[in-house]
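Could you please consider the sequence and fold appended to this message?
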Amino acid sequence: MDTVLNFLNNYKIIDACIMIVGVFGLVLVFDRYRALFLEFSLPVGPFLKQVMALIEQDKIEQAITFCAANEKKPLAYVTKKILEKADRDDEAMGTALDIAASETAPKLMKSLGHLAMVANVVTLIGLLGTVIGLITAFRAVSFADVAQKQTLLAEGISIAMTATMLGLMFAIPTMIAYSFLHAKQGQLFNEIDQCSQKIMEAMKSRIYMPYKGLTAYPSNLNAEGMKKISTPPPTKVS
């Protein structure tokens, strides 16, 4: 046991483990921030307005081209897959929506769950370092010479406090970043869901022409036309 404790204390193994896991967490934070806030984010209002305007004008090909220009954005990718099934029925468009959403979800969820793990792991490693430091301090009080007790006791407490500090220094920012990134992830999912439903409704209403009374009963029939329609042709007398 003493050999293990001396090895961990002399080579700063606990501190090194905290640094490695903490740096890994920071790398994940920056990667997910770049993806969720920069790479995948899209101005929803202008995008949806442009797509809906093209759908109302029956310019589906232009709408697909517009979405293809932003295909790296999950919302544009899902919209493009729906518009590509514009010549199919409602079920085909719904299936395209489900497939596109299932393809997009892993990109939005990638590695985000690891941040919570990193925050917990660095905290636990810091707790392990605290326990090791306290054990070292107690052993110093129990077995060391009187001349070395103060030095070993201070060293053990220093190891314990340093491990705790390093663990919290990485765990607290990681948990804060995780909360913001998780909220952004949920926002992107909500945007995809709401916009895709609006586009689906627009595509369905585009298929069915609205009822108009003038189309069924035209008003351009004048009295002369009505007379021609209502007057039967003369019969020939033999």
